[in-house]
Amino acid sequence: MPHKYQTLKMRQITRNEGQPRETFNEEALNELAASIKQHGLLQPIVVRKAEQGYELVAGERRFRANAIAGNITIEAKILLADGDAEISDLDSFKKAMAENLNREDMLPMEEARGFKRVLDHEHDGDPDKVPAVAETFSKSVPFVNQRLTLLNLRPEIQSAVDAKHIGTQAAVQIAALSPANQKAVFDDWKKGDKSENQLVHIAYAMRKQEKAAQQDSMVEVEELTPEKKAEVGRAQTKTKSDLDTIERVCELLDGIAKIDPMELARMLEGQVGKRLEQIDRVAASVQKARWQLKQAKAHADASELLISPKAAAPDLVGEAAAALARLEPAADDTPEQEGGDAQGEPIASEAVEPAAEETASPEGDAPQQEAATEVEQEAAGVEGETVDLAA
CB-based contacts of 130: which residues, under 8 Å, 6+ apart? Predict the structure, then answer.
């Protein structure tokens, strides 16, 4: 698009009320203002001609900081009309959106509303045109879909997402729930006893239970036959017994752990490598079982919150929680053994959000990538805190 550079007076420029960013960090603005005072404005703002003066297209943060710095002029890139075509409001918005998207302080809901505006105005809201929107802003289709999904959240949860109290991956899973169950999960989360990772898994588990309840409401559920009840009972008994056996194995492993490494090498002369491989196989199996128990715990927690008369609660809520607790590492475990769950961005912290987000389903389906990642990380001795969702 044709343009020219010019020094403009600050009073010649008016803000664009429809610009995508709505929130600005005052501390960051003051820091930028201090930098402008010392080094000057390193990147010009972008404006377009208006009926009176100019309208800001991109660079509102720089514009505000320049005002705080006390400057009465500012360097500007002025967009020029291409022939008879004027610079439309939507074109101006898209340029502002493109500039702000890659700034880490643009809020998720601002991005969501921005993508929706472009999708509605350019493509009549057609979901099949999401790839075109993604291409416009050099974003992946899953990223744009995830942001659009956030618009299904209840207003109070949207506010929590923008305040960075809830990460976007957890928010995507919550957005897939009914409004009533969104509120149930949110109210439970506000108690402060759930990590981001747990929030993601609980929301996903609740969605699965919602679907199961909907299916049960459409078909007649048959009563279990005596034989089937007996089979279920035997399976429950065996599972509990297996977990109790694992608990006893811990005593054997604790004994091995107390032997001096030099003495252990002498005791296992010629078999140290083979025995280490044996323990590695045990550790990998424990991690996989632990993963399954974490999912069981998420379903148990979700069943207690689920608002649906058709949803049946799992039978082994207490057993799942107790078994998981027995498999958790001790508080004094070293980093080589396993790191505990960290309060991340939400089940996945924002720090790892970009990569994780693009693997999660925009409809809130299971975070399969996260599941695989966490199992692999746990098997390596470090539990992942990504959620961004999946498991």
Answer: 119, 141, 144, 145, 148
